[in-house]
Design brief:
This protein is about 20% helix and about 45% strand. It is of the alpha+beta class. Strand 4 and strand 5 form a beta hairpin.
Length: about 260
């Protein structure tokens, strides 16, 4: 999906950091810094971004300057909004009817061919996530935090995150695992076979991430980034936050 590589990466990190609220809507604001990196001979400059997140009941919205992502567990779907072009993409969270769009021409396949394709993709793309609590503790920006190390093994390379999470902010941390796994694995149905394992591992992180430092080694490049929680508050999400804005046209995922 050519238009959303930065969005997907940014939201991936933000979702790892943000569990789900139990009683009221909750607002979180994060700052992410990504170091400059050379990938395939081209230099990507250092980047600083701000991500604002609203969490309410069974839905979540993440906003950056040009894009937003809405996760609706009640509808088992995720929406990616492109505000510049006023288009949105609908991504199923359960491999439902729209899942075929992700594979492009899958509508021309027989059910047997479609199943074979999915099984082949699943065999080729294996994701393994391991979360370990280190026992280390420290106070960061007035929050008492515990350290977790999350290691993700993918076909493209390993991804390691040092996560400092705090339970000073009350959240339903287990429910957050559903948001995180839904986002990570709905983007590619071939990865859905790892959904249960990822969900189980993510529930080991008890608390909201206050600070994290991540390193990814992909295609021979070392990508490093940090993320810091700037603000947290209880409140009410703006009206219409979890719905597709009027005037936005639907685009097929993967185009």
């Amino acid at each position: 999906m050519k238009r959303y590589p930065v969005l997907v990466g940014a939201v991936l990190v933000c979702l790892i950091c943000c569990p789900h609220c139990v009683y009221a809507d909750q607002y979180l604001k994060y700052r992410t810094h990504t170091d400059s990196v050379r990938i395939m001979g081209q230099i990507e400059p250092a980047r600083d971004t701000v991500q604002e997140i609203w969490i309410a009941s069974d839905r979540m919205r993440s906003d950056s300057q040009e894009h937003s992502m809405i996760v609706r567990l009640d509808k088992k779907v995720m929406y990616i909004l492109n505000h510049t072009e006023k288009i949105y993409t609908s991504v199923p969270l359960d491999g439902g009817e729209e899942a075929g769009d992700i594979f492009g021409d899958e509508e021309d396949m027989t059910p047997e061919e479609r199943q074979t394709m999915r099984e082949m993709a699943q065999a080729m793309i294996k994701v393994n996530i391991i979360v370990v609590e280190t026992g280390e503790k420290k106070r960061i920006n007035n929050w008492n935090c515990r350290e977790y190390i999350m290691k993700t093994e993918t076909m493209m390379g390993p991804f390691t995150s040092e996560i400092w999470a705090s339970q000073d902010i009350e959240m339903n941390y287990d429910l957050f695992a559903r948001f995180n796994a839904a986002h990570n694995f709905a983007l590619n149905p071939a990865l859905q076979g790892s959904l249960s394992q990822a969900m189980e591992e993510m529930t080991k992180i008890k608390g909201v991430t206050v600070f994290s430092a991540s390193t990814a080694n992909m295609i021979g490049a070392r990508i490093t980034s940090t993320q810091e929680l700037l603000e947290f508050s209880d409140g009410t999400a703006p009206e219409g936050s979890f719905a597709i804005p009027r005037g936005y046209a639907k685009e097929t995922f993967g185009e």
